[in-house]
Every structure is written in C-alpha cells, then in structure tokens.
Amino acid sequence: MCGIVGFIGRKPAAPLLLEGLSKLEYRGYDSAGIALVGEKGIEIYKSKGRLQILRDKIQDGKDLPQTVGIGHTRWATHGKPSDENSHPHQSNDGNFAVVHNGIIENYAGLKKELQAEGFTFLSETDTEVVAHLLQKYYKGDFMLAVRQTVARLEGAYALGILCADFPNQIIAVRRASPLIVGLSQDANFIASDIPAVLSHTRRFLQLEDGEMARLTSGGVELFDADGRLVEKQELKVSWDVDSAEKGGYAHFMIKEIMEQPDVIRKTVSPRLKDGKVVLDGVKLTEEQLRKLKKLYIVACGSAYHVGMVGKYVIEKMTRIPVEVDLSSEFRYRDPIVDKDSLVVIISQSGETADTLEALKNAKAKGARILSIVNVVGSSIARESEDVLYTWAGPEICVATTKAYSTQLAMMYILAAYIAQTLQTVPQAQLDAFLDDLLRLPEQIAEVLKLAPKLQQMAQRYAYLEHAYYIGRNVDYAVSLEASLKLKEISYIHSEAYAAGELKHGPISLIEDGTFVVGLACCERLAEKMLSNVKEVKARGAEVLVVTNDHVKVHADEADHILLVPYTNEMMSGSLEVVVMQMLAYYIALARKCDIDKPRNLAKSVTVE
Ligand code: F6R
C-alpha cells in the first residue's frame, strides 16, 4: 500500500522524510521518492526498489537544506514499478509536486483531456493527472487550485501537494484513503499512517473524507470541502510503534480482516459502471469467449479455494464448464489445453513458483492466460495476456484474508462479465447479481460486528484437537478455506468435507464433543444440509451453524447458530468466510499462537 509522509519545520526535511518512509516500509512498497521545496523551486529524487537505493542516491539527504518536503513509498497500481512511475509526480511547468495514495478511477478520461490540451505525461500512473490538473487550474491561489482539482477526481485519494510559489506550505487532502496530520511545537507533518511520525509527535488530527489541511511551520488549518475552516479535537496517541503499525490491532491478521469492506469496494467499484461490468485493459474478445469449450482455474492454497467457488459461480452464470486445478498438479499432468482454452490464474503474490510454471506450461500450449493478481508487475502479471488486479493492498499476515476476499469478488466480476458478453442470463438476473455485488462491502461490515461473539466462542474451542467443516456447493468450497484458516494459524487439525460425502466415510470420525461447523447459506440446499447437521449432532458432535434468515434452523438443531446477512447463494461465501476467519483468529489468539507468522509457512512460496 502506498505510504505518504510530509514535513514542514525548521530542520532539513530530507532526513526526516526518509526516516518517516522507513517507518512505512512494513506496508510493502516497490519504489520510493521525495520532493523538496525551497527558494529555488521544487527538487524531486526518486527510484525504484528499496528505500536504501534512494538513501544512497541522495546520501541520506544530508546535503539537502530545504525544510519543507513530501515523501512516498509506492505500491504499484497503475503502471509497473519503475523510476518514472515512482512518486512524487510533477506538473509540466514544475510548479507542483504530488504524492498520492489510492486510485483515481476516472484518470483515463482526465488524461485524454489533458493530453488534448497539450500536457505531456512522463509516467503510466493515475496520479500524474493530479499534478497537471493543478497546473491547469492554478491562477495564483494554491488552495483554490487544489479544490478545483479534487472536484474533478473520482475514486480514492490521499494527496500531499507542494507548490513552488508557496514554499512554506504543504496542502493535504483526502477521500477514502487514510491521512493524518501530526502536530509538534516547531514542525508539522502529514502521513498516511501514525507510525511514520510517531517518534516526533503523539498529537494528531484525523482528516475526514473531503477535508483539506494547510500546513505551515507555524500551524495547521483544516477546511471542509467547501473551503470553510474546521475545528477539530486533537487525538493523543499512547500506542507504541509496533501496535501503531497494526493500526492499534494486536495482529496484522485482524487488521486485514477488518479492512475487507474497504478493499472489496476498491476492487469492485471501478469495474461496475452504469450497471455494466467494465474490465479496462482486458483484451479478451467476445469471439474468443464464444469459442471457449472449457475454462480452467489454476492456483495454490487459498487461491485454489477461490477457484472452487469460481467454478460454481462461473458455471451457473455462463454455462461454460470450469475445471479447477492445483498448480502443482496441473503443471505435471500434461493438461488438455489449446488455443481455444482460457486459463485463469489466481495468485496474491504473483510469484508462486508452481502457479507460474503452470501458467508457462498452458501458455506454451497456446492457451490464453488471464490472471487475477494482487501485486502489480509481479512475474505472473508480466507473463499474462490479461491481468485483473485485486486492489487488496499489501497483505502482511502470512495467512491470507483480504486478498482471498478480493479474489472471490473478482470471480463474481469475471462470471458477470462473461455472462454479460455472451448474454447467458436474463438482464434482470444480471442486474440483481451486480446489485448484490455492490452491497457486499456493507454486508461484510455487518458480519465484522460478530467479532466479540466469536472471541467469546473461541475460548470454548481453544483446546480442540480436531475440527470438521461441512457444506454443499459454494458452502463446501468455502469450508475448504475455513478449514485451512484454522489449521494454519492455530495448528488444530481440521478437515473440510462436502456434506453429502459424510456418509461415505468421514462420519466415522464423529464422537461425543467433536466440533463440526456447518456452512448453510444456500437456501436451495438447506434442508439437505440440515439433515447432515442432524446426523453429526445425533452422534454427539458439537455443531456451529452459519446461515442467514432465509434458512430456518431450530435452536435444538445446533449448539450455536450465527446469522450473516442474506445475499444470493453464489456470493454468500464472501460473508461466511469472514466469520470463519475471525473464528480461526480468535482461537489462535486464545492458544497464544504466532498468528501473523505461523510456523513453517512463508508469505510467498517461490520454490516448488
Ligand atoms: C493460505 C495462503 C496460501 C496462499 C498460497 C498461494 O492462507 O495464504 O495458501 O493462498 O500459497 O499464494 P499466492 O496467492 O500468492 O499464489
């Protein structure tokens, strides 16, 4: 996730900006840069790669005397990691420098407009439009130019802006991306996250959506979107740096679980325009889709579990058969793919060795590759003809949560896109599906309110030896992920079974007190699912059922019943999985496990 820091005071800014950026390194980044403003105008230093490369380039900033500057660590979204795409970006006349966190959704249209007016673009980023818009609107009033510029922007942004004509000011503005202002006696700061400046101050102002801050070395003024002064209570922070990095949460895992409504909104909303799915940059044609006889989804671990949900959803929406494969199996089984096959690769890191090899294998046979990836410029993204990015931001906890959820959202988007192109479902059904998709973030926010209840339940299950998860259709696919979540972070043995398979073997494992989770959101199959629940309960199991209010579960049919909001059966997994992530998290917490770094696991599996 991009990180922003800004400093205005009496000391040289560059060393302080570098220090602030180093505190934001934990968020993940691929390039870094700073801009300084002084009597001679704006100077920019930036480079791709680790912050140390930038430090070496400017000798830790010790010969740079300017006392006002902004800095940035970039996590690539639009455009690969490169020196040119690194922030800060400058207006053509050199009068403005901008750092940005977020995504400008309407940047393509703005870029066209600015190019037609003669502006030259030096990067592939969405951010550069902001610098040129500032130049376009500037008539001597810095604040007004910023206000007119942000009025043109759609999407999410936190911006730090310098203007050479106002060398004693920084203007910051935000919408839907975090930004705080730090206050101290002889300096003021902006930052996307408190840890960046926590060694200098514990006094903060939190900017709300649409608010703007004007910083000078002597003070800070806040304005609302209409330019009216805003008074605000200071926030006094007593956290240490470690908990500040986690936004006050005990672990990155729970922080990332809580970020899910936000990242799903970021993944979905730019792809739904005027009631239609729009996949910018995807070159797959209608003709190619019409020729498809089969679609393959290839991935590892949780990403493979996403593919299992994808199979149900894509087949239902498009009637194209879908085969889901583990990358490590696919690459060695001489798969039957050719130029009329579409292979969908799913990977958070974009670097998983087996998945990358599976991709190359399918590509060598002529298959078309569409990947769903979180890391821009990663190996899998570079090898693919089409890439759909999940805008989950960097995931730091080894066990995936928010990346999994955004991958699921991409499955719905892809299914709807194919259905829309091939007209495989009636328009009203497609419209309802897209409405449900837009509602997911708020429904997930509702599910997150179950956290205290799950924490309480987790005390009871902390010392389990085994757990079993059952479900049918999408609920079964989500059971696989629920089970993996529990076992990887709590080290409790767990398995997931298609509920209809119980009688074919696994039911022999059930005895008094065996913990079974039944996922039962699929209304159509509820009766069958609940009879499986009764079967295990009759054999002594302690059962937790996760369902919605369209399914009637009697109090005596389960030991615990948790309700999630109702949505169509294809998307209900997005709600169930959040309950399951929290249950696993709180059980692991009660067992005092090393949650963010479970034993023997790595975040990115770059070896076979
Ligand atoms: C489990 C988990 C892993 C990954 C798998 C694939 O919580 O994170 O199972 O899903 O290693 O990784 P990516 O998505 O980076 O290819």
The whole-number mean of residue pLDDT values reads 94
In CATH, the homologous superfamily of the largest domain goes by the name Aminohydrolase, N-terminal nucleophile (Ntn) domain
Largest sheet: 8 strands, antiparallel
The helix content, as a percent range, equals: 25-40%
CATH fold annotation of the largest domain? Glutamine Phosphoribosylpyrophosphate, subunit 1, domain 1
The rounded distance between the terminal residues' Cα atoms is: 28 Å
Into which percentage range does the β-strand content fall?
15-25%
CATH class term of the largest domain = Alpha Beta
Globally, the shape reads globular
Task: Give a verbal description of the structure.
It is a single chain. The protein contains 19 helices and 27 strands. It folds into three domains: 3-245, Aminohydrolase, N-terminal nucleophile (Ntn) domain (Glutamine Phosphoribosylpyrophosphate, subunit 1, domain 1); 254-446, Rossmann fold (3-Layer(aba) Sandwich); 449-590, 3-Layer(aba) Sandwich (Rossmann fold). A hairpin with a 3-residue loop joins strand 9 and strand 10 (187-191). The protein has 608 residues and is an alpha/beta fold. The protein is globular. The mean pLDDT is 94. The strands form five sheets. Strands 3-2-4-1-10-9-11-15 form an eight-stranded antiparallel sheet, with helices on one face. It has a seven-stranded antiparallel sheet with strand order 5-6-7-8-12-13-14. Helix 8 packs parallel to helix 14 and helix 8 packs antiparallel against helix 15. The site of fructose -6-phosphate (F6R) has 15 residues, from helix 10 and helix 17.
